Amino acid sequence: MDNMKVAIYARVSKEEESSDGKLQDPDNQLIPLRTFANSMGWTISREYVDRISGGNSNRPAFQEMMSNVRQRHYDLILIWALDRFSRESMTNTLSYIKQLKDYKTGIKSLQETWLDTSSEGVGDLLLAIFAWVANMEKKKISERTKAALAKLKARGVKLGRPRKTPPPYLRPLARENVTAV
């Protein structure tokens, strides 16, 4: 459909280096999404970018986008992949997609060509399966992180935030183990 008003949503987990040394830069998603929207003749009304885990429901840009969807600002939300849209539970992810449908806003994934609710043919079963897969990936990442931390702890590495050195005027009290009441 020409003249479609599109919002682009991109998400990266952190602004740090990933395990393969590449920076997690939202432009890696935004540039191809812009190119695709322009090639379709669509109007990009707004871009939303979150730099937070997709398992967190309090993503500021995501919440603002969904609020604008409820005001019917867009015909379509264009995403890189379903796991960039949400890594919450299957129920939550499908609830977001249902909200989009309720407000006559489609969702289209650039990487998963089957995910295009702007046209007929996308089965709810496929959406449920892929939302579940995204949630399982989130759990795998959490398990890997916990395993790596346990391995470090077993080696005697101290985990957690370093202790702050007390300010100079409190150091004599700290040496005497005096605590504030």
Question: What does this protein look like?
Answer:
With 181 residues, the protein is of the alpha/beta class. The chain has one domain: Resolvase, N-terminal catalytic domain (Rossmann fold). The protein is built from six helices and four strands. The chain has a four-stranded parallel β-sheet with strand order 2-1-3-4, sandwiched between helices. Helix 1 links the parallel strand 1 and strand 2. The model has no long low-confidence stretch (mean pLDDT 84).
Number of DSSP strand runs: 4
* Widest β-sheet, arrangement of strands: 2-1-3-4
Q: Which geometry do the CA atoms define? A: elongated
Q: How far is it from the N-terminal to the C-terminal residue, by CA?
A: 68 Å
Question: Strand percentage, roughly?
Answer: 5-15%
Question: Under the CATH scheme, which class?
Answer: Alpha Beta
Structure characteristics:
single chain; 181 residues; alpha/beta; Rossmann fold; four-stranded parallel β-sheet; 6 helices; 14% strand; elongated
Quick description:
By secondary structure, the chain is of the alpha/beta class. It contains six helices and four strands. It has one domain: Rossmann fold (3-Layer(aba) Sandwich).
Give me the secondary-structure topology.
Elements: E1 5-12, H1 27-39, E2 43-51, H2 60-70, E3 76-79, H3 82-85, H4 90-102, E4 106-109, H5 124-154, H6 171-175
Parallel strand pairs: 1-2, 1-3, 3-4
Helix pairs in contact: 4-5
